[in-house]
Sequence to fold (494 residues):
Amino acid sequence: MVGLVLEDWASPSRATASGGEYGVLMYCAKIASRAGHTQRIFVAEFRPDSDTQFVSVGIKHVRFWTLAGRALLSKKGVLSSIEEARMQTMLSVAFGANNLTFTGTISGDVCVWKEHVLVRIVAKAHTGPVFTMYTTLRDGLIVTGGKERPSKEGGALKLWDQELKRCRAFRLETGQVIDCVRSVCRGKGKILVGTRNAEIIEVGEKNAACNILVNGHMDGPIWGVGAHPTRDVFLSAAEDGTVRLWDIPEKKMLNKVNLGHPARTVSYSPEGDMVAIGMKNGEFIILLVTSLKIWGKKRDRRSAIHDIRFSPDSRYLAVGSSENAVDFYDLTLGPALNRINCCRDVPSFVMQMDFSADSCFVQLSTGAYKRLVYEVPSGKQVTEQAVIDRITWATWTSVLGDEVVGIWSRNADKADVTCACVSHSGLNIVTGDDFGMVKLFDFPCPEKFAKHKRFLGHSAHLTNIRFTSGDRYVISAGGDDRSLFVWRCIHAPH
Fold:
């Protein structure tokens, strides 16, 4: 019997579940409600010294709220008589003593409010938008983060006193230029910084030392996940144009390769010495793992590569694309990567591919929701069921087939189950779906609506899922949440 537990490491949200049950149950009841504004509201935050007063900011407005029983009372920000003052779009809010409020604007200014009246503008606190602010009323210091042109004087993180005279500007020394801070928090002599590049950095106030706590993909869904054949490391490929190497026991990112174009799929060679990467623009790249240098690259297609696989004997590379095709390349011919054949008459785009253990066949799951089998490298379709039944598959990532009928729920639409992976032992299959659920089944599961365990954590739309070497972990990738979850497999006694 196998269960999954979400590892506590670099994921931006933390959750554990077993058998579909949450670990914590919370109840919320609505106290009061009222329309806030006709334009978008970006932040609503209670004053740290009050349970009844809060401020909301958004597109060209600031409102000061008071909760009175079940009623919400508000006053809009008044610009008073400050010369040339205009209501700007406000992105962030912080608080000071004596009923002061600070709001950060899209133009880089910080506005100072006494109660609901504007009393001062600190012009160009940042050269770009002030995305985030944080106050500690204990000492009154204010942290701001925004977009900043890099300079010798400082960067996108700044620390101010209550008079908003700049106390210190910090350069975030992480090996690359960081010019955009999106979130800040402060305590015990340290500042936590969330960046546009999906990093969380710890900054020492006294020595300005930077320590990267969390790395992540910064743009678009994470599409590709590839587990190393023997080690507890894995690769992720994403829309942000990077492929990243992660160490599971150390719980950290080991390396990153910038590809220049969005990446859709990634796969290790059987020996773990090469990595194949399929790109959104139809190109694919093979890297040498030890040096991260390009061994070869090719672009025979003009649309996205959805899956890419080495054959178990390391001779062939199969490349499945949006162009209703799977191309075969003979790697023994060298890095020129000349296409030797392709699968014909594929009815739709290729979603997942798996080689047979003897490297003689490949199975496809397609956008037409048909599972097809082809010979390698001739590309001839195999239609005899007796032949298909005798094939032993090296891997199984297809969401289609008689062996996986049970992974589809009663009311499932065709697109609901997005990814799957059978364990190396062949005893279990793990799936991801459009609702953010990871499900664990026995394999095979040929009967409809098979029993399973559900595990919650992702917000929605899983894009990929893989067992790691030895079935010690499961890696799941999220689309909308852009997160990688690491699940530890627990093998309970029968």
